[in-house]
Amino acid sequence: MPTALVIDGHPDSQSLTAELARRYAAAHGDARLLALRDLDFDPHLRFGYRERMQLEPDLMDAKAALHEATNVVIATPLWWGSVPAVLKGFFDRALLPQQEYRYTPAGLPVGMVRAGRGRLLLLADTPWFFAPITGLPAQTQVARNTMKLCGIRSVKTHRMLGVKTASAAKIDGWLERASRLGASDGARDRASVATELVTVGA
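Now predict its structure.
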């Protein structure tokens, strides 16, 4: 299985978000790109947590990939202070108690996803100077309340703000950044796997 899982949470394959995810995955060299728009699943948690819904094959496959990865990257735009419905629906359906997280008797969350590292590529039309005012709640929602809660201990957020008015040069810079991050993470992830294999062999 690939060492990295790159989750593209944008419903439009022609979006900048989707292209950033593709650039990162391609540069990484050992990443699986999971475009949620291509999955066949019901994004609605129709019974809440009262009754467990049967997982569709695409969700079962996605969950397996999540648990196999050592590095998880999520690319998403910020819409209305949150994330697109397809990404939120994926979180609701795929991340389940006793599977991706659990609670101790004292009520403390324990993550069950083994990936030690992750990145959040967050895009927004919000100008950078509004960020301190709005707080970019999607960053907290995804990085802390989702990724870290599920066990991804170290999550780095990369914010690309003012997308709507960004120049072509600015956008090119973001794309190049995604490629650099992917290449750097790929080298690190492969080295980490090689070290683990040597340790196991010893």
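The mean pLDDT is 92.
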